[in-house]
Write a structure and sequence with these properties.
Elements (H helix, E strand, L loop, with lengths): L2 E5 L2 E3 L5 E8 L6 E8 L6 E6 L6 E3 L7 E6 L4 E6 L8 E9 L15 E2 L3 E5 L2
Amino acid sequence: QLQLAEAGGGLVRPGGSLTLSCIPSGFNFGFHAVGWFRQVPGKGREGVICVSSDHSTYDWSDAARGRFTIDRDNAKDTVTLEMHDLKPDDTGVYYCAAKYTGARVKSCTLDTDYQYWGQGIQVTVSS
């Protein structure tokens, strides 16, 4: 079964930092763009940040720019999301997603048309 597993969520105070990780099961991240998305109650799932399969291209939402980074570790086949200066508006369920792009496509998008999704993990920013 092809799936993703997120880890590292929890409660953090405003201004704090948190790192989420994403590990695939049943496949590996080779030739896949990987993105992080989040969803809050009453709103649709929004793209936060993504990285292309070859690490060459990134994209961020306006909310994430300057505060969030994404990193791929091919040796560990893991993608991490580092979040800094967290705000209450960052509260939500965070999802990791992967999309096969092959060797030629060196880009990623924040659209939700990804093939594989994790179950989501809660991040709460509150004092």
